[in-house]
Amino acid sequence: MSKIWSPNIGPLKGRVVFLSASVPNPSRNPKFLEGGDKSMDEMLLVHLLDIRINDAVRSLVTMVLEAGGRIAHGGHPSITQTIMEQAQLFDKVEGEPPILTYQSRLFVDNKEYSPPPGLLEMEASGHTVINRVSHLPDDLAKAKSFLPEMSEDEFQNLLYRQSAPEAPQNLKIALFLLRATMLGESKAEAGVSIGGMEGIEVEADMFHLILSRQKSLPYYAFPSTLGAAAQLGRNDIRVVKGEPYSGPELDSVRGDLWERRAYDPLMSQLIEELLA
Predict the structure, then answer these.
(1) Is domain 11-275 annotated with CATH 3.30.450.40?
(2) CA-CA distances (angstroms) from residue 110 to 41, 106, 114, 115?
(3) Cα distance between residue 156 and residue 94, in whole Å
(4) pTM for this one?
(5) Which of 3, 30, 201, 272 lies at 20 to 30 Å from 138 by C-alpha?
């Protein structure tokens, strides 16, 4: 029997959830591994975080889509394959695709660019639309229109925080354009932070600046995935406490690793809140 995704099937009715997630890179900044097992080898810890973060992404994507919702994301290479695998569990799509992917032309137009694993397959199967966003400084004015009025110093501070301090200015401009466009155009009604680094921090701020100024929208962080998601100490972020489910029947029921949905119990709370 075909498994159908449709905005007309399920209680979310096409509403968009913004996913902000990636697997931390300890070579960039070791602070994003804080909270992990200090007795564990660093590379083993990163491997376990990879599994845990993708488990969380897997549960979120599947449960949002099962409820008839959509996911908006920036196509980070460490999670896109997982998003594709879960989206393609729905072998028929009605209406516009359930996954909204945003990519910067800074990367897309580079001859050495390799699309994130699973992205083109997801586009070919009709499960995502890829929005390719300008990286040119000339387009800053349009992207800034999604933001509230702010001083030039405030804007420059936001621009500076788009990536690691040592990152080149053209990358920071490209990431700002990507994030402002993604949040402004997708009109997400909730956000979720999982793992990640500097981008997770600034995306949480931009979500509230762009989408949650007049109407308070829910934004969730999963500290059990470590990374920046474990360090978002703000009053307007709902911290989802608890560890992923790890019962012995998880693998025997779910089968292959890519089918694991260890975060289902925690994600079900999130879906219930969105529907309340």
Answers:
(1) no
(2) 35, 7, 9, 11
(3) 42
(4) 0.92
(5) 201
